[in-house]
């Protein structure tokens, strides 16, 4: 365990159909790669995308993931929200391992 702490915000957001949505993920240390997921109530997490160090922006259909300048935060943008987009969005990170 490396002690990395990740915080997500906003924790809850109510949208109208067709509105845009943005959520953030902040870390206490640098992200080397970052995965975004969505989970519907009672369901399993569904993989959305991976951001790797060196790739600042990635777009998948109506979703755009971005790293912040310092690589300690990321954002996920969803355009034109639909009913099927309802759920909990979260990120997970793997940190680099150095072997000697």
From TrEMBL:
Keywords: Cell membrane, Disulfide bond, Glycoprotein, Immunity, Membrane, Signal. GO terms for biological process: immune system process; response to bacterium. It is found in: Cell membrane. The keyword Transmembrane helix does not apply. Residues 4-100 form the Ig-like domain. It comes from Bos indicus x Bos taurus (Hybrid cattle). This is Ig-like domain-containing protein. Pfam families: V-set. The keyword Cell membrane applies. GO terms for cellular component: plasma membrane.
């Amino acid at each position: 365990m490396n002690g990395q702490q990740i915080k997500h915000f906003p924790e809850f957001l109510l949208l109208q159909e067709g509105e845009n949505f943005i959520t953030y993920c902040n870390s206490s240390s640098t992200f080397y790669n970052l995965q975004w997921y969505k989970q519907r109530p009672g369901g399993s997490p569904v993989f959305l995308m991976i951001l790797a160090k060196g790739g600042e922006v990635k777009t998948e259909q109506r979703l755009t993931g971005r790293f912040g300048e310092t690589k300690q935060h990321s954002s996920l943008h969803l355009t034109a929200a639909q009913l099927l987009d309802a759920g909990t969005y979260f990120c997970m990170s793997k940190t680099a391992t150095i072997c000697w």
